[in-house]
């Protein structure tokens, strides 16, 4: 594309409080943290930031509270170049999460889902959704998510779904590219093998289905049989948001008219690079991500 793609994201924006601890699980009443930081999180929000870092025009529709957390997130999105369409609810508390990162970089999330947050599609301005080449949702605001998916279908906008569990699974029939976590695949399909889960996840015959496997890459099927794309080997500092970054990069690539194999490679590179620093600090630009993606081995049938 001559112009960067417009990526519309609908879903969760939260504030992560991240402690990198000396050991996990704790062995006594007190376990010290090596570092602490606060920064934005949430699947759709991190996807939007990842798309913006790659050079896309990123929009985010999210529900926030009437509190300092929302103020912090709004400033962060402005710095990242993400166009925020926020529904701020009076006297409401925004979503926040405590995140413990162990010495190997694995994260353990303890979410507080907020209080009084509204999920009212009529309260959002959806005008700019029509400009998008691709729309991503995490279904964390299910009413807004369904409304956006129906608008996308009416306007011929490609949709990408980021599902971490089986909540609001009925909406996946509206998704063109359904990419789920390994835990979600097991929960929905009952299959312990992610490859065996792929046909059980599919809601439409023309739907791409995929299961992310962290350092083991991703398995996916666009209708011609399962394929595995490898994940680059990197030094992991903090895996928080890596899957969210993967989804944002994949949506960016599909919006930029890259074919699926190339989109999977770019997304795998971005997800891996996201692990090499704290929070969103290590999210790459497109040249860096493409450089790492070019080192991946050729895909093989899974």
Characterization of the model:
This protein has 302 residues and is of the alpha/beta class. The protein has one domain: Ribokinase (UDP-N-acetylmuramoyl-L-alanine:D-glutamate ligase, 3-Layer(aba) Sandwich). The chain is built from eight helices and 14 strands. Strand 8, helix 3 (142-155) and strand 9 (158-163) form a beta-alpha-beta unit.
> Overall pLDDT, averaged?
95
Helix content: 25-40%
- How many domain units? 1
Low-confidence stretches: none
Q: Helix/strand/pairing class, anyone?
A: alpha/beta
Number of helices: 8
User: What is the H-and-E element order?
Assistant: EEEHEHEEEEHEEHHEEEHHHE
Radius of gyration: 18 Å
Instruction: Let me know the largest β-sheet.
Output: 10 strands, mixed
CATH architecture: 3-Layer(aba) Sandwich
Looking across the biggest beta sheet, what order are the strands in? 5-4-1-8-9-10-11-12-13-14
What distance separates the N and C termini?
Answer: 31 Å
Name of the CATH first level: Alpha Beta
Shape: globular
Strand content: 25-35%
CATH topology: the name is: UDP-N-acetylmuramoyl-L-alanine:D-glutamate ligase
Task: Give structural attributes.
four-stranded mixed sheet; ten-stranded mixed sheet; 8 helices; 302 residues; UDP-N-acetylmuramoyl-L-alanine:D-glutamate ligase; alpha/beta
């Amino acid at each position: 594309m001559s112009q960067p793609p417009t990526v519309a994201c609908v879903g969760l924006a939260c504030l992560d409080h991240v402690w990198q601890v000396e050991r996990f699980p704790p062995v006594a009443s007190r376990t010290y943290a090596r570092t602490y930081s606060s920064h934005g999180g949430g699947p759709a929000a991190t996807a939007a930031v990842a798309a913006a870092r790659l050079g896309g025009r990123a929009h985010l529709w999210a529900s926030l509270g009437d509190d300092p957390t929302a103020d912090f997130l709004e400033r962060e999105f402005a710095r990242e170049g993400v166009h925020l369409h926020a529904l701020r609810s009076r006297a409401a508390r925004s979503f926040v999460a405590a995140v413990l990162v162990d010495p190997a970089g694995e994260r353990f999330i303890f979410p507080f889902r907020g209080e009084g947050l509204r999920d009212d599609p009529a309260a959002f301005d959806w005008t700019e959704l029509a400009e998008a080449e691709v729309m991503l949702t995490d279904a964390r605001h299910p009413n807004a998510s369904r409304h956006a998916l129906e608008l996308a279908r009416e306007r011929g906008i490609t949709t990408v779904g980021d599902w971490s569990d089986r909540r609001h699974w009925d909406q996946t029939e509206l998704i063109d590219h359904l990419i789920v976590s390994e835990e979600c695949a097991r929960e929905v399909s009952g299959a312990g093998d992610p490859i065996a889960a792929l046909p059980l996840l599919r809601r439409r015959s023309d739907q791409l289905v995929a299961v992310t496997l962290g350092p083991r890459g991703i398995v996916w099927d666009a209708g011609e049989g399962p394929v595995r794309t490898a994940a680059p080997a990197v030094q992991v500092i903090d895996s928080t948001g890596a899957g969210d970054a993967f989804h944002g990069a994949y949506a960016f690539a599909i919006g930029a008219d890259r074919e699926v194999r190339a989109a999977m490679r770019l997304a795998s590179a971005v997800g891996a690079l996201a692990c090499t620093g704290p929070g969103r600090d290590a999210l790459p630009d497109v040249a860096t991500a493409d450089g790492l993606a070019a080192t991946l081995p050729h895909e093989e049938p899974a």
